[in-house]
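Annotators were shown the component list below and the corresponding predicted structure, then asked to write short factual statements about the assembly.
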Amino acid sequence: MLMSNSKIPDLHTTNGPCDGEPVREMHPEETFARLQAQTRRHFLRSLTAGVGTMFLGTLASQYGSSARAAELNLDGTRRLDFTRDPSRPLAALPPQFAARAKRIIYLHMAGAPSQLELFEYKPELTKLDGQDCPASFLLGKRFAFISGVPKLLGSQYPFHQAGKSGQWISDRLPHLEKHIDDLCIIKSMRTDQFNHAPAQLLVQTGNARLGYPSFGSWVIYGLGTENQNLPGFIVLLSGGKSPDGGKQLWGSGFLPSVYQGVQCRSHGEPVLYLQNPRGVSRSLRRSELDTIDKINQQTYAAFGNPETITRISQYEMAFRMQMDATDAMDIHKEPAAVLTNYGSKPGESSFANNCLVARRLAERGVRFIQLYHWGWDSHGSNAKEALNLGFADRCREVDQPIAALLADLKQRGMLEDTLVVWGGEFGRTSMRENRFGQVMQFVGRDHNPGAFTIWMAGGGIKPGTTYGETDAMGYEIVKDAVEIRDLHATMLYVLGFDYHKLNYSFQGLEQKLTSVKPARVVAEVLA
Amino acid sequence: MTFSLRQMSIRTRFGLLALAPLLLLVTLLLFLPPDGVERAEWAQFIGRFHLLSIHFPIALILLVPVLEIAGRIRRFPDLRASVDFLLALATFSAIVALTLGWCLARSGGYSGSLVTQHMWGGIFVAALSWLCWMLHGRFLGQRLDFIYAFGLVVAVGLVSWTGYRGGQLSQGENHLTEHMPTVLRAWLRLPQEDKGPTAAASTSFFTICVEPVFAGHCNSCHGPSKQRSRLRLDSYEAVMRGGKHGVIVKAGNPQGSELFHRVTLPAGDDKFMPAEGKRPLSADEVKLLELWIAAGASPSLAADAIKGAPTNAVSTVADVTFEEIDTAAVEKRRAPLASAVAQLQKRFPDVLEYESRGSADLVVNVSLMGAKFGDKDMAALKPLAEQIVVADFSDTAITDGSAAFIAVMKRLRVLRLMHTQVTDTTLHMLGDLNQLESLNVFGTAVTPGALQVAARWPKLQHLYTGETKIPADVQVSEAVRGKLVF
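Structure shown to annotators:
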């Protein structure tokens, strides 16, 4: 803290402007926040910079001033600047390098769909159906429910090769099959979490614990959004339940909360209480907001807390959303043929409606559209969770809408710059679940973090390819494992970012989506 | 007899002063030996000066016997008087060099017997130098005087040996004999250098199939710039020599070869190679290593001698790398149009942006303005026309009246005119956009007549013609076939 004395006004006496800042008085609270942002590392770095100044003379101008040091990452590379006009925190910023996609539609199948019933064709496993599972499968493994020695379970549905790419797919996704030459199927995804909530958090925030910004938050922090009348990060739920990870899945963590996802409803008002109450006109609402805005501006002038800015801009966005969001969400306006394609019924809360809304939001420049469809946790403990019953229903619910979404995006030329991702939070075991060591009434599989399948399509992704391979039982990865952080690094690359550079200083670390472990951009899946 | 600092000679005082850091160094070497782990860059940086500073004490120690002998010649009797000073200087400079050496060894990722020998050699040289200094002249004329001479001889021997070991560390194990002429080699009965296989090996299995695997996955840590665990994999000899854990290839026995073992461990194992999240070897690449070792790990075995070897196994997909943005260069490229860009950004918020932080090219998206953007607004884009590479005019009120303005955007790669009033007239005017890769006329009144112009776009990949007057079964020329999307 010592080296900053000259820059930071005394906590109790002066509130003078500090150099390089817009002329606004700095409140002690802000000073405190700044001091907190200075870490031992900054201090040490300034010290070394000081030594450099002594004997490098001319070079010192490059490293000497601490204002300059703030522009550098700890590894000495230049920081990307994500600061914006405080009144427009969601303003669009150009990506670090030319992007292959400018928006993401992420279809998260909450509960983890079975790869062995959809994309993983394993004839050997089918042959061994009903046999005791080998001891090596159980050694050192933890399961949510499997106990004792479970039986191997072959795929419940027939597989065939489809499209020009000849990729394998089961008979559960007949509509999606028509787009198989657009998909890049990654069969070697791996996670280290075997329960839904932490695994979903890992997939969506890069960390299995609470409190980290979600993927969408990072993206709109880095890129902003094109349409200032809609949130940049919109979340739509279906399937009857919220995902186990809860609202943290679209939370902004330590990023300013203006970057959090906005959950919208797919029927009725998109956001509850968005419309003015009866008797309140739009102009009355405007003058009310103007007054609130004045008070908030005063508060910001006094305290300098960025969350005040968030509050102001959220009020403003809600006002603009009253028109635009209602229009974007209103699928009544779609022609009947389109509704049929998606299998949409306006007024329902369904995945089909959400897919259609997703397309409408994408057209309106929303940066990150996140759909959750709950109900894929096929343990076999009841009919809804049975691979041969509930699972088939889930497939029916998503198959046609996803195919229609891909078709629409493709037809409108939007698949070129939209990245579509489909997947769950982990995979399912090659063994039949035997809860409490007993044969269960319905057929199901337990959680398998060791291998699962996702697919991507659209901007920057190599279409019609399969990447990675699991063993003959579909249980463990034998080739080209992709960690969640690798997937994240790859998706950020498609959006035009080096995953190291999309970072935010918090708790003395340059925090990033991929966290601290080294990640890899999977170059093999890039077009 | 009592010891007091005052009674001591200056030499004894300094001698004791030198003993302290010497003992400290011994302790450091015992408790914090070099362990092959790379540490702080600072220590490495300072440590590198070991190579520079070490020559000073070496020269001094070698000089002492020269002075002692020359001093006995009647012409130079004064020479021996400086021996005391020289030994003191040698001892202190040796301590400095040793400290630097420890920094380098501890932080530079060194380990193994070579560095251990070199290290203790250095310590003993410093200790001997100190001893000689203390003994010099002490037993002059007495029976014990031979100890000093003996110490000096040992010091010279040890300094030569330690220096040689140090040379092996930095220059390679055979740095002295590497270029020894064949005649001399024969005379000294040293093994002849094995140049044959490497020279003739350009068509060998090793060169064609194995070396590329090392080059793609291993040589960044085990190559010319870094030698983790003192292992290099950038030549046949280096591969066969192995590293600090010994030989890594046992010819004919893949399972027993450390090289094969390390790349086939379960991913996530601490010893798995390549380490630290680098791209693992593909199954085919592992197979190549296995076949090569099983066939005897030969440098000269012909590439086609091993049947069933996977072909094209080495991944052709390059790893993604990121380059720093040259901010100054970008600013320079942006400068000529910066004010025009700023003006336009002010007039139409959120529609104009640079393609990336490292680019001066522009992306225009007015689709969100809808009917508020029309032909009369197009003129505003004219000064920037040549910088625009992606333009989206979808859903706006533009008509064929805008075509002239679009036609001057010579560098357009992507053009979107979805749901606008444009017709074939516009398309016919855009024939010179030879960079065009994607054109979207979805939901316009464009007819099959407009398709002739598509042949003039050499880079065209997609022409989005859904919901136009072009039927899905339209007959098209070779140039457009397969590019229409309905």
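Statements collected:
1. The radius of gyration of chain B is 38 Å.
2. The domain at 327-485 of chain B is CATH 3.80.10.10 (Leucine-rich repeat, LRR (right-handed beta-alpha superhelix)).
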